[in-house]
Amino acid sequence: MLPAGTSLTDLFEACGQELLILGEPGSGKTTMLLKLATEAITRAEQDPTLPIPVIFNLSAWAETCPPLAEWLVEE
Prior knowledge:
This protein has 75 residues and is mainly alpha-helical. It contains four helices and no strands.
């Protein structure tokens, strides 16, 4: 259990840099994802050894379902 007020980035780090965000439509999943990505970019700008996040819209992949690795390269 994490203490109240734990930042999203700290939560992400505590979860081994793996986080599944679930919720009803309109509950803020995308906003939370974008906030996490923004924080990660800010950190990567200060430390070039950190990875830079990339966000993909998987609904675009689902339209044609090519091999995922090929689709990621195309995107």
